[in-house]
Every structure is written in structure tokens, then in C-alpha cells.
Amino acid sequence: MLRRASFLLLISAAAAMAVDIPESRLRMFKPLPQAVESQKNPITPEKVELGRLLYYENRISKSHKFSCNSCHKLDQFGVDNEPTSEGHRGQRGDRNSPTVYNAALHFAQFWDGRAADVEEQAKGPILNPVEMAMPDEKTVIATLKSMPQYVELFRKAFPQDKDPVNYENMARAIGAFERKLMTPSRWDRFLQGDKAALSDAEKAGFLKFVETGCATCHMGACVGGTMYQKLGVVKPYPGLKDEGRAKVTKREEDRFFFKVPGLRNIEKTWPYLHDGSVKTLDEAVKLMAEYELGKNLSAAEVSSIVTWLKTLTGEIPADYVKPPALPPSTAKTPKPSLTD
Amino acid sequence: MLRRASFLLLISAAAAMAVDIPESRLRMFKPLPQAVESQKNPITPEKVELGRLLYYENRISKSHKFSCNSCHKLDQFGVDNEPTSEGHRGQRGDRNSPTVYNAALHFAQFWDGRAADVEEQAKGPILNPVEMAMPDEKTVIATLKSMPQYVELFRKAFPQDKDPVNYENMARAIGAFERKLMTPSRWDRFLQGDKAALSDAEKAGFLKFVETGCATCHMGACVGGTMYQKLGVVKPYPGLKDEGRAKVTKREEDRFFFKVPGLRNIEKTWPYLHDGSVKTLDEAVKLMAEYELGKNLSAAEVSSIVTWLKTLTGEIPADYVKPPALPPSTAKTPKPSLTD
């Protein structure tokens, strides 16, 4: 018996030491960049600083209650942890607010890809009647122009422009800020060669993630955000009403397709799926394996994958998380409306 | 015993009748169009007719031995059924010649997507030293211009152009021809509502295809040709040397990614994979399930999927298959070179 016990010990020690991820398994992934550069909208410190203020600016909502940060909270991994977010007068949309962190890397924005980049995305919620509910671009710009500090910040951020305070430049500034919102994690250190950055259990979880087939869709720097995929590709996802990408393209074959979400910080960005209907990460992993890959994972397998997913929880850039002092309103600044 | 036998008979009869494909499973697929329209290169009968001649034109190869049709044989489902194709002086490239049928629908051309469309693709092999091996575009155009019949056909196909015989227009004509090379099959009739177009065994095979996860990558009108995917996504594909898409992008994360091939006429377009290394369709299905989806399919499961795949074998457009009478050479037509 002693002999057998030693033998088993040896085996388990060998197994514990044996988790080695071959280079070939890592090529589909890459570390986060420091920022997501854009030729159309080069990042400058002036734009980023203006964008940071605008990101927290609640006076570009009809009620003066909502800013980008209301639903995409920078101190909360870029989400509000609600299935759908509260907007103007308590209204809620039908989709979960995705995290803003690392989103600039995604190949398209929104769950259905209806905006090409973060600049285009930024223009949407401000005018959406169930979100920030501003009546039109003109009112947004009049609000910003009413505060001399903003006019000066726009002038600095867009020195070539004669009339720099406009809706496009507002979106450019917010976009430039968002292009810096990266959250590198232990996974990046591992990808950069620090093999001790992950435990054996985490490495085993990564291999399980790949062997299960998750990386067919979840790949790249964001571990997702590179394609659309059908929710329910191997069997119909129960109760699915939202037509996803088909709402944008009007094409039958895009029905129930959504952007594959990035899995960076996924541990912290519950609830899951486009409608926030799944509360726990274990459940989300189990459901995705079943409906996207036709595999019934055991609890141990789910747990192993989740162990790795937690290594994607990154460091939030502390200097961006502190709400900035916003420019003071003036007599010209439009008043909030709470009643319509 | 009799009772048990009747019971089993009933069950098997019920099972045989029970194969019904819900609409929701079909949305990722769509019937082939009659032609793949292009704003950049509108299809006209004149371009198509010129393109058809050029497709069979062997005098735009250095040895006068090779045409598009040498490797993409229109009477052989658009392929030559060889692992790699013979080109100039017996040389062979390192990739399998994919079928030209339905290829115009693909989101990109070549196994690595290095050409955006069929027009761009058509320019490649003519100048490739291991394929048609023409020394330069000028010699190609001089060859075509040496034959008055071609000059006239180019003039008719491109009536707005002052000097219509040029390399771009040659590619446009070949592209316009290829945009018509569609092979509708029983699968299209089924998708268009004729539920009797498929047998129960074929319908069961389709459901097995989807449930296995094949449709994660093989979707749309071509049952593929909509994305790149890694060969060996769940475990390394043995002996893989060709870096695929990474050769084009030089990006580490694209290593071993290839365009997901369309499965139209897959029964007839052996051998399989980018290097033609897999001889039978059964083997190809088994390998894809194993390396792309992490599933070990039984022989019966493979056979069921293959039963459905055979419904993708379409009708070849008979009028395009007959080699046309090519314009006669003239004294000005460059002579073939067989020695260099």
C-alpha cells in the first residue's frame, strides 16, 4: 500500500508539473496594446483629456443624470452589472451594456455591429430616447458651447478647426479616450513570455478552453470581438427573440447572430449574453459549450475554464477612474428636463 | 417476440418519418444566386463571352499549354482532382487548386485570401512562374492584341475604353464569366421550399452537420467561404507547415488560418484541404470534427454528414463546359517557350 501511495503521489506530482502550453496554442492570442491607434482619429493627449471629461459629462443627457459612465462605469470594469441599463426616465433598452474597456479593439461596435468604431458608437447613446435622450445634435453642441472651458478644450484638441465644438469632434474626443482604455492582465504577462504568470490550474483551464473549441470564436487580443456568430449555432437557443445582426443587415442569414464578445474582465462583467440573462460565468460557459459547440461540459470542466478566464481580469487604469472636475455650467447652459 | 418486433418497426417507421428540419436551422444558409453581381464589374453578355474564351486561352501561358481551365476544369466541377496542380515545365505549387464554381461568392479569394475578388484572383496565375509563367503583363497583352478577333471582343466588352485590350479588362472579363459559374443543387430546391427535394437520410445528415458544429464556420450560400479559421483550432494539426493567412498579413495570430472552403460540390472536388493531403470526403469530415471541433465522430456519423454533403453537388452549366473555338494565332502572336 505504501508503495502504491508513493506511486500515485509521483503521478500527481508529474501531472501538476506537466501543464505546459505549446507555443502553437498561443498564436491565436496576443497581448493588449497600450492603446488602439487610429489613422482617422490619431490619439493626442488633448483629445484624451477632453474625451475623459465628456465621458463623465451628464449635462449631455436630457435629464442631466446620465453620462457614458452611467452604464459603462470605469470603476466597475466598464459595466453596470445590470441585465439592461437604466436610461432616461427609468426606461431600459433590450440589450446588456458591454464593457468599454478594450472595446476599441473590437472589429465593430454594439452587439449587432451597427457602428464601425468607438467614435461612431459614441454618437449613439446620447441621442437614443431610452438612454441619454438628447433631442438632437444641435442641443448637445449648444450645451457644450455654453461652457467656455469646453470651448477652450475643443480648441486645444482640434487646433486646425475653425469651429471645433461639433458633434463629430465630440465623438472623436470620446473615441480617443476610449482607445486608451486597455486592461492588461496576468494573461498578457504570460503571452509576453513570463511562464510563471499563470498557475498550472490556469494553464490547464486555458487548454480546456481551446480543446473545447471556445477559441474558434473567442480569439485575438480581446479573446473575442473579431467576428459575428449565431447564438444557438448547434441548436436553437431557447426563447431567443432578439434578431441581432439581422436587425442591421435585414438579411435572413444574419438572424440571431451577435458580435462574439471579448472575454477580457469577463469575471467582473456579469450578467452575460446580449440580454444579460445569464447571471454567473459558470452558467455562461456551460451554455455556450452546449449551444455553440454541442458539448455538455462537466462542472469540473466548466470550473477549469473559468479558472483561466479569471486571468483575463486586468488592471484598471487608476488615473481614468477618478471622476474629473467638470466645467461649471453658465447661465446659457440648457436646464435639465425630467418630465418629458 | 412478435409484439416486440412490431413495436420496433413502429419506432423505426416513426423515426424515418420524423426527420423535419426546423426553419430556425436553415437561416444560416441560402440558395445560390444566378450570378454574383458586382458594382465594380457589372456583368454583361459581351464580357462573359470574352471571359469564357480567355478562361480557356492557353496562349497566355509561357508554354501555350496552360489556361485557367487546366487546373480549374469546368467539366470536372472546377478542379483537377490533384493534390497540387501541374504548371509551367511540370512545376507544382504547394496548395490545392480550389474549384472555380461558386467561388465568386466567397468573401476573399485564394486559400489565404490574398485577392479580394475573382477579378483580382484572375491576374495571379497567369504571371506566377510555377503556373502559367508569363513574363509580364505586357507580353500577355501583346499576345491578345496579336489576334484581331480578341481586339474586337475587348472593344465590344469595354465600349467606353479607348484602348480596351489591357490587363485590367482581361481580369474583368474573366471575373464576369466566373460570376456566372453557379451550380444550384437539390439543396437549393430544398431551401426554396421543396421539402421533398431531400430524403430523410439527407435531412438527418444536415442536422448532424449542424449539431456537430460544422456550421460554425461552414455557413451561407456556399456553406463556407465567409471567414478564415485556424486549421487545428482545438489541437495542432499534424505536420502543418503552410502558415496560411499569416503569409499575407505577417501577423502571428493568423498563423495556420485558411479561408474556410465552400462545400458546394465537395463530393466531386477531392482531394481535400489547402494542400490536397486528404483523399476521401469521409476522412476530411472526420479530421475536421477532430481538429476543428474536438469531436470524435463515429463512422455512422461521418457517413450521415457525407450523405447530406452530397446534396450540394450541383448542375454544371453545360453551355460553359464545352471548350470554345479560340481566335486563330497570327504571325504576330508570340511563340511558346518550352525550355525556360
Which labels suit this protein?
homodimer, 340 residues, mainly alpha, Cytochrome Bc1 Complex, Chain D, domain 2, two-stranded antiparallel ribbon, 13 helices, 36% helix
Tell me about this structure.
The structure is a homodimer of 340-residue chains. With 340 residues, chain A is mostly helical. Chain A has two domains: 21-32 and 184-312, Cytochrome Bc1 Complex, Chain D, domain 2 (Orthogonal Bundle); 45-178, Orthogonal Bundle (Cytochrome Bc1 Complex, Chain D, domain 2). Chain A is 36% helix and 2% strand. Chain A contains 13 helices and two strands, in the order αααααααααβαβααα. Chain A has helices at residues 2-17, 45-55, 68-71, 118-127, 137-145, 148-157, 167-178, 186-191, 200-212, 246-249, 281-293, 299-309, 318-321, and strands at 228-230, 257-259. In chain A, strands 1-2 form a two-stranded antiparallel ribbon. The radius of gyration of chain A is 23 Å and the shape is globular. The interface between A and B is medium-sized, with 32 and 32 residues.
Which secondary structure elements does this structure contain, and how are they paired or packed?
Two copies of one chain form a homodimer.
Chain A: H1 2-17, H2 45-55, H3 68-71, H4 118-127, H5 137-145, H6 148-157, H7 167-178, H8 186-191, H9 200-212, E1 228-230, H10 246-249, E2 257-259, H11 281-293, H12 299-309, H13 318-321
Antiparallel strand pairs in A: 1-2
Describe what is shown at a glance.
The structure is a homodimer of 340-residue chains. Chain A is mostly helical.
